[in-house]
Design a protein that fits this description.
Layout lengths: L2 H13 L11 H5 L10 H10 L3 H5 L2 H4 L5 H5 L6 H16 L19 H11 L2
């Protein structure tokens, strides 16, 4: 097994998602609030992971544009859960490069009194794995 195949298997294992179930209908992407910000959209993540074309995803800023809102998960008629795939790719990037996009020390300057606590918890979950 080559490195790309091992990475594909690791992403599938980590996410718990079967990308083969994706029928590429695009409903997940049509629901995504970050659609315009992403180079690759939720249904493309599923398709590219299924085909083993993972390096473009790793190199893309799209892994950081996903809001982890799970709208795509709710909309998928086949239960593919693309947000979990995106999260697994992001985690792979973080582990491979050995650093996060954000540290806990970066957070205070980005919040104010109207920042919801859920956003802070989500940010820590997203950026400190």
């Amino acid at each position: 097994m080559n490195k790309n195949d091992l990475l594909r298997e690791e992403i599938i294992r980590r996410s718990g998602v079967n990308p083969k179930k994706c029928m590429k209908c695009g409903k997940c992407s049509g629901t995504c609030p970050a659609y315009d910000e992403m180079e690759f959209h939720p249904h493309q993540f599923a398709s590219m992971i299924d085909s083993g074309d993972i390096q473009p995803l790793i190199d893309s800023e799209s892994v950081y544009k996903c809001l982890s809102c799970f709208a795509c998960v709710e909309r998928c008629p086949r239960g593919v859960e693309p947000a979990k795939l995106i999260e697994a790719v992001r985690l792979s990037v973080i582990r491979e490069k050995g650093n996060n996009r954000m540290t806990p020390n970066d957070i205070p300057e980005k919040v104010d009194e109207e920042t919801p606590q859920q956003l802070l918890v989500s940010a820590f979950r997203k950026y400190t794995k």
